[in-house]
Structures are given as C-alpha cells and as structure tokens.
Amino acid sequence: MFILVAVLGVAIGEGKYSDAVLGAWVAVWTLIATYILFALKVASQWEKAVVLRLGKFTGLKGAGLFWIVPIVDTIATWIDHRVMVSPFAAQKKH
Fold first, then answer.
1. Which of 2, 59, 76, 90 could be bridged to 50 by S-S, CB 3.0 to 4.6 A?
2. What backbone phi and psi angles, to 5 degrees, belong to 30?
3. What is the CA 36 to chain-centroid distance, rounded?
4. Over the stretch 30-67, which tens digit does the pLDDT of each residue have?
C-alpha cells in the first residue's frame, strides 16, 4: 500500500521536483513506515507482553495496541491469561 502511494505521488509530482528531492521523500517515508511497522504491537484481549528496555523490566503492556521503541525495547515473552481447562477422572471413595 505504501509503495502504491509513493508511486502515485511521484507520478503526480512529475516535473515539479528534482529526482533528488523525490528520492529523499521516498526514503524518508520508507523509514517512517518501517519504524511504525516495528514499533506498533497488538496484544489480544487475553494477552500481555513483558517489555524490557535495554534488558531491564519496564512493565507489562496490553491488551490492545501499544508502542515500543525498536531496538531499545524488546518483548521478552507474551503472557496468556486464558483459563486452561484440564479433564480429570472422578475419584472413588475407599
């Protein structure tokens, strides 16, 4: 989708700007889109993410949308809060 918008922008702006300016705009918007791609995270309603900043615990994030700082923040693990059901057989009295 982003590439389509970039190509349309180049086609519309043909002749108005130099190739260097258009190349710079495409490069800048590509970097912004890449940052957003890696920074935006989504946790399901029953999930939480353990976020570490430079290896130190900073908190739990979720449920829903949340942002992290790429490279600086990492998600160590995802915690599942759903209830697990285990089948078991009834015991007999002795």
1. 76
2. -65, -40
3. 7
4. 899 899 989 999 999 999 999 999 999 999 998 899 99
* Contact assessment for residue 46 and residue 81, using Cβ atoms and an 8 Å cutoff: yes
Local structure of 24: helix, strand or coil: helix
Q: How far is CA 1 from CA 11, 37, 46, in A?
A: 15, 13, 30
53, 34 contact by CB (below 8 A): no
| Other residues' Cβ atoms within 10 Å of the Cβ of residue 62 | 21
pLDDT at 45: 92
Residue 85 pLDDT greater than 70, yes or no? yes
How far is residue 49's CA from residue 64's CA, in Å, rounded to a whole number?
A: 11
Q: Which residues of 21-34 are buried (b: 16+ CB within 10 A; e: fewer)?
A: ebeeebeeeeeeee
Cα separation of 93 and 28, whole Å? 73
